[in-house]
Amino acid sequence: MSKNFDRASEYEALMREHQINAVIKRPIGVSAFECDECGNPIPESRRIASPGCIRCIDCQTVYELKDKHYRSV
Ligand SMILES: [Zn+2]
Known about the structure:
This protein has 73 residues and is mainly α. It has one domain. It is 63% helix and 0% strand. It is built from three helices and no strands. The protein has helices at 2-25, 44-49, 57-72. Zinc ion is lined by residues 35, 37-38, 40, 55-56, 58-59. The site of zinc ion has 8 residues, from α3.
């Protein structure tokens, strides 16, 4: 019983570490050159207009729609 609990908290700590690493790897304010979703190049105008963007306009639109949907549920 206590062993299972240890494993669960260990996993949780690992996941948290992964999330922290992901944040460190992608500094806020630096736009990606390629879309994180589809891999298409992000136009320079968009990269300048939206600092920190990681998706092309199409994917960002879909992402925001999904995000809104999940939040409202
Ligand atoms: Zn895209």
